Task: inverse folding
């Protein structure tokens, strides 16, 4: 078999094929054995008529299409390997000349992984912001921890105030008529939380246990129930109990309850500061990395085939489907609940999918140009993350991996090393 190669653009090639007639004859025989039972020939049991008889009866071209479909994948894959191509879409047959007894000639055009023309990817003038954590940040985080550890204590010696939790029975009335969905018993409500219709919670401030209060409110114009939207109503409310929020004091007892390592307030403050500094550093590093990659992407020139974008959208939808499945929901049901269609979501994903593909291609090109390869230690470090998640040692986990799995981890480690290279050279 002889093949020719012509580059049509940065992302499309043309392959020409010339296949020996003997190879086509072999494919014709295979096509005959595959389809013989389809033909009814007088004087022969179905499927038993010789190939020559079928050709005389139905025409010599009866098996040509099937034979070509059998022959094509083999010769096509050989050409892909010969010319070291990474195809990203199905090939399109553009020319064909099939004559029995003569070399079979045909051409296909196919989209391939596009060429990437890198722009400047070093000395970008981008610096990572210094992550700072102030005493106010530490104190605010500690206050949030105290709030999370707070509890409600029932009281009876004063009326309700904002931030109290009241237990109430209520019934909503539109004039003299009680409306659907506006009734509950034993409902816990934190006053000032904004959980109820505007104006409702404030009217319970000052109420005592056992009080019955008429709460007058107007439903918002955008309320989900059209029959109530913008309508003034009255809720008859009974206060069953009042609970006061008790926030724990910042002392050593509180520290030992919320921390596994700190024994006193000062140690706890140091622990909180270290945690916030780590978070701030991670955030600053992520922002720096995104800025570097965005700039390198911006400086590069790529003509991305639509097929690559569609494949990425498919991957994103599969990820979405897996997340839904973990939540006990089918993707189609999610679409119904949200009022979205699969086509709308695909359209929504189009831009981020293109950005992902572009970034991947650019990083891979930098890796190739700079000849960046991960070391065995770096690959093992990547594998170790997954081993820990599966509660296995590195060696145990590696024994479970196939050759393709190892190639995948090597690829991931090399790409991460490339990103680090870009960050190290961004100033």
Result:
């Amino acid at each position: 078999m002889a093949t020719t190669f012509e580059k049509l653009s940065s992302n499309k090639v043309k392959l020409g094929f010339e296949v020996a007639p003997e190879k086509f004859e072999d494919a014709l025989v295979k096509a005959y054995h595959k389809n013989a039972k389809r033909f009814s020939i007088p004087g022969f049991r179905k499927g038993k008529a010789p190939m020559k008889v079928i050709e005389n009866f139905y025409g010599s071209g009866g098996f040509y299409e099937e034979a070509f479909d059998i022959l094509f994948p083999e010769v096509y894959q050989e050409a892909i390997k010969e010319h070291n191509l990474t195809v990203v879409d199905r090939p399109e047959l553009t020319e064909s000349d099939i004559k029995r007894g003569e070399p079979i000639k045909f051409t296909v055009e196919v989209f391939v992984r596009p060429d990437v023309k890198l722009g400047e990817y070093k000395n970008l003038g981008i610096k990572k912001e210094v992550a700072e954590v102030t005493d106010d940040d530490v104190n605010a985080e500690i206050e949030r921890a105290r709030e999370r550890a707070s509890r409600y204590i029932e009281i009876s010696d004063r009326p309700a105030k904002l931030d109290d939790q009241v237990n109430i029975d209520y019934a909503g009335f539109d004039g003299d008529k009680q409306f659907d969905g506006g009734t509950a018993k034993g409902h816990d409500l934190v006053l000032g939380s904004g959980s109820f219709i505007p104006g409702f919670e404030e009217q319970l401030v000052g109420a005592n246990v056992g009080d019955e209060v008429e709460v007058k409110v107007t439903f918002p114009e955008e309320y989900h129930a059209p029959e109530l939207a913008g309508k003034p109503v009255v809720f008859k409310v009974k206060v069953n109990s009042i609970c006061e929020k008790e926030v724990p004091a910042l002392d050593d007892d509180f520290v030992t309850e919320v921390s596994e390592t700190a024994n006193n307030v000062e140690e706890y403050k140091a622990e909180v500061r270290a945690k916030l500094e780590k978070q701030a550093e991670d955030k600053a590093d992520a922002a720096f990395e995104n800025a570097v990659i965005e700039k390198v992407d911006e400086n590069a020139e790529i003509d991305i085939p639509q097929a690559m974008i569609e494949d990425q959208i498919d991957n994103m939808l599969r990820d979405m489907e897996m997340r839904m499945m973990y939540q006990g929901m089918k993707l189609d049901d999610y679409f119904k609940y949200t009022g979205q269609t699969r086509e709308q979501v695909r359209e929504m994903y189009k831009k981020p999918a293109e950005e992902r593909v572009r970034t991947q291609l650019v990083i891979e090109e930098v890796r190739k140009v700079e000849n960046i390869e991960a070391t065995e230690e770096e690959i093992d470090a990547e594998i170790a993350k997954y081993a820990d998640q599966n509660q296995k040692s590195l060696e145990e986990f590696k024994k479970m991996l196939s050759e393709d799995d190892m190639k995948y981890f090597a690829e991931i480690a090399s790409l991460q090393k490339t990103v680090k290279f870009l960050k190290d050279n961004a100033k």
